[in-house]
Write a structure and sequence with these properties.
elongated; 93 residues; mainly beta; six-stranded antiparallel β-sheet; single chain
């Protein structure tokens, strides 16, 4: 899916996963929740859910958007970002 100019993310988002045990992310806007089995993050490209075992946040700096997670990563999934604007503009815009 191509993004229109108005939908371009304000911040670059990237993810690096090494040996399924160390994940470095850029462009993280918020951490919605976490425990040793799941980490839920907000990114410019949507909500990212990381599932695994023994997950813990090693480093976090939301000002720069950097995050490092360690543990056994089993699954990564993105939900599309919520569209802005009123209901009418989304239906007819």
């Amino acid at each position: 899916m191509a993004y229109e100019h108005s939908q371009l993310p304000a911040r670059e988002h990237s993810l690096t996963l090494s040996s399924r045990e160390r994940m470095e992310l850029d462009g993280v806007e918020d951490v919605s929740g976490f425990d040793e089995n799941v980490v839920v993050l907000t990114t410019p490209l949507g909500e990212l859910t990381v599932r695994g075992e023994g997950l813990h946040i090693e480093k976090i700096d939301l000002e720069t958007g950097r995050l490092e997670v360690r543990g056994k990563v089993r699954e990564l999934s993105y939900d599309e970002p919520a569209r802005g604007g009123s209901l009418w503009s989304r239906l007819f815009g």
